[in-house]
Amino acid sequence: MSYVAARAVFSPTDSTSPLSVSPSETILLLIDYQNIAVGRLGDAAPSVLGVARQMRDWALFKGMPVYHCMVDTRPGITQPPARNKLSAKWRMYEDKFVAVPGLGFEADVLAPVDPGWEKTLLRTPGIMSALESQHGSTRLTDELVSRGVKSLMVCGLVTSGCVLSTARAATDQGFIVTVVEDACFDPVPGLHGMLCAHVLPMTAHVATAGEIRDAWKVL
């Protein structure tokens, strides 16, 4: 049985499809749902966060580990690499995080509910790909390889930043990548739709949360 969404192929017999591997070989990434980013969603916030939470709950039900990946916003702890373009602007962001530390926290609606299956990782400011996130001294990429993970489902803010960077980096590392379209958002008008229609599908499966859950009913 196969199921083809607008920009995704869901078929257990296709080795490039997320359905070709088991739930235990699949993880869900929740990337940068920090309050400073959520504040840019405007009226879209309830819907985007609601879909991300639904995907988290569904992934846990299916037996998929969930990784919460965020930028390390602790003032004075980490800095962007010296030659990173963001380094010149980071002081401005640091001042915001000093004044309101909660801006760097993950949205409450996505707070981990199952410590045995959910893990929070941080990455250096200015680094876009969530694969560079770390838990202690272990990089996410290395942990995924050691666990035998083959497929990643990506949800995050914003589409043109961490989502695109993570999706492309993960493909380059040999992972099957699925972007959950309605769990992502970009504040630039029209950009999210353009990326999901014309850019991300070059290397990733792109589908809505509902399409993904329907497709996975065969497993």
From TrEMBL:
Q: Report the residue ranges that make up the Isochorismatase-like domain in this protein.
A: 26-209
Q: Which GO terms describe its molecular function?
A: hydrolase activity
**Keyword annotations of the record:** Hydrolase
Entries under InterPro entries matching the protein: Isochorismatase-like_dom (IPR000868), Isochorismatase-like_hydrls (IPR050272), Isochorismatase-like_sf (IPR036380)
Coiled-coil positions: none
Q: Which family does it belong to?
A: Belongs to the isochorismatase family.
Q: What is this protein called?
A: Isochorismatase-like domain-containing protein
What organism is recorded for this protein?
Vermiconidia calcicola
